[in-house]
Amino acid sequence: MTNGPYEVRFTLVAEQDLLRLADFLLQRAQNLEDLHRAEEVMQILRQTIEIQLATMPWSYRKAAPGKRSTRRELVVPTGSSGYVALYEIESRHCVLVLAVRHQLEQDYH
User: Least C-beta-crowded within 10 Å: which of 49, 76, 81, 89?
Assistant: First the structure.
């Protein structure tokens, strides 16, 4: 998807992370409203990642301070917690999303 000067691509690992996170929300759903909310959260997560990274990938925190400045993390708040997308700015025109996790998870999978 391209909504800005950068093309945003997801690795297979990042796509699998999104599926894993969606499955977790769906398994916890107790009613139809929860199912709709889970779907909405995942749509918002993907759209936010794509839009924010397509327009301003340099604006977010470095993944490892003092290391490569091209590896960064985008925090996407949802309610009382949120998600973190690890990404690499590959060139002047491309951002690669490497992994996605919930903020309460220990690390990327």
Answer: 81
| Residue 1 covered by a domain | no
12-28 and 32-55 are packed helices; what angle lies between their axes, rounded to 10 degrees? Answer: 150
Query: How many whole angstroms separate alpha carbon 28 and alpha carbon 35?
Result: 9
**CA distance to 8, 17, 56, 94, 97, per residue, from 2 (Å):** 7, 21, 12, 10, 14
**What Rg value do the Cα atoms of the chain yield, rounded?**
14
- Which structural domain, as residue segments, surrounds residue 59? 7-102
Predicted TM-score (pTM) of the model is: 0.87
**Number of domains into which the chain is organized:** 1
The CATH number of residue 97's host domain is: 3.30.2310.20
